[in-house]
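Structure tokens please, single chain.
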Amino acid sequence: MKTYRKQTQQKMLDSHYVNSELFESVMDAFDEIELENLEANLTRL
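Here you go.
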């Protein structure tokens, strides 16, 4: 996940597509979703 984040951030910054603050907030939200999904899946087992 971390390497994916770095690659995506670099692409976005290279193309000036998005500023890094917005990117960070999006990725933080993405991480929270991932964690919630993981926890939900673990409790189901």
